[in-house]
# Entry
Amino acid sequence: MYLRPHKTTKNGSVYEYWSLVKSVRTARGPRQKIVASIGKLPGLDQRARMGWEHIAAALEGRIPQADLFEDRDLERPQWASVDVSRVRVERLRDFGDVYLGLALWRRLRLDQFFHQQMGAGREQIAWDLMACILTLARFCAPSSELKIAEHWYGKTVLEDLLGVSADKVNDDRLYRALDEVLPHRDALFAHLQERYGQWFGTSFDFLLYDITSTYFEGNMAGNPQAKRGHSRDQRSDCVQLCIGLIVTPEGLPVAYEVFDGNRTDVTTVEEVIEALRLKYGHERRIWVMDRGMVSEEHLEQLREWSALYLVGTPKSMLKAFERQLLDENDWSRIENGVEVKLCHAPDGTAETYVLCRAPGRRAKERAMRQRQLDGMERELNKLKVAMERETKALRNEVSAQRRVGRLMQRYSRAARFFTVTITQHPDPADPQKPRLHIHWDRRDELDQWAENADGAYLLRTNMPADDPQKLWNAYIGLTQVEFSFRVCKTDMAIRPIFHHIEKRAQAHIMVCFLALAMWRALEQWMKASGLGTAPRPLLERMATIHSMDVLLPTPTGIDLRLRVVSQPEKPVAMLLDRLGLRLPGRPKMIANVVQNLAPSDTNSLGNGEI
# Structure
């Protein structure tokens, strides 16, 4: 909304008055609607109306003019007598965090994307604005749609920035917005790829893929994808969904897929790669995946599609490269003491292998193995004592074998180092009653190979390779996928899912994906500005900035209402300066003057607030 001046001449005299105007979307395009005719407002001129109407340019990162938020002519004092004993502050609203979120929304061109995709129909509030509200809420203060409508939205300045009044944001409209957003998922992936390239210069040479799970609250009988499976959240008591995420080496999310909760990791790879191959092709794309994600069948399929890959391998494949691993020649030292070496495939194929070894990882694996060996030895001794005492649980050989099997499962890293046998021998005191005996041997021949293999791992690729460091850096980028999962589960609160309808659960994940894209884009923005890569402290500092109405009572019975943004503290101001993000520096002069009107007149102007 904005104020429009009017001039009219009657009987040779010029009269000036003001009207409050807002822009509305109609089937015939945007139109301007007069909200109220205000009359003459003393002291309000064209220059005083400059300020918040330029926020869109600041949010989108356009280079501001010198007088964007300041006008040197306005530095001249404007005098008014004010009764300081009655000065008060009203309408305190959260400003900083939602302002930053809206800046990210517009710099990613998501406002343009959803407006073009969803268009303008007969709805009272445009769906692209509702998509913005859902995503900003997930980005700033993750909560349910009901809490957004009843608590969060009314406490923020979005009513001013988006022009959507708080009474229009309810849970029903937010749920319908989820339904409207979901059909544009695939188009969103293409838009984000284009925007990442424009803003950050992302090339998408490498695509990193991994999978996680998120669980539901409730039985979710109406959602066929909600099933029990391997839970990464240690919630095996709940049904779940599996989410496969594709990111760039910088951590920027590119796309995702949702799978049934009982899908294993390896069964998702072919489906994901085939979907992206049909949509975007394989040109200049190299797939990076962990060793648990691929099988020989998948690699063969990738080669048939002429796709390039860089994947981890099972630990057992190291044995085929024992000679190269023990040979101290041709190793290249890179960061943090990690050493890498290129090796040719032992079967003479066109694949290239990269041997890697890291001192930190070697110490960790040795400590883990030793802890498992000690635990296995300790439990076997306990089992031996129990057999000698003939406890009730070990009356026969079958029960003893089961106990040993559970131990092997519990100490899986140490199981292969032990050979355990259980035998029956006659009891000298009672020959008719056999007694159980347990015996185990340590396979010492495996210890030396385990020592050599500690801290070492093997990568394989079918891409032309002459720089092992580049391949290692690309593979280590898989930590960006894991970090994205942590952001989704902690900062975006993707879990648990409360939606019972399948498409609503999918839309919930899409909104979380949008918030994740904003979060990782903020990391890149901060990194380019020399502010590190930790968005959470930045958001917490931005949350200290508020919008408020300052009411200045005058002796004439006229209250001057100034809608202002609080002055940020010096550290926050420095952060804003580094980001190139400017705040409105002058009072918002819309709703500038409020007179002591009669009750009937006050109701017509919204309880005295314009």
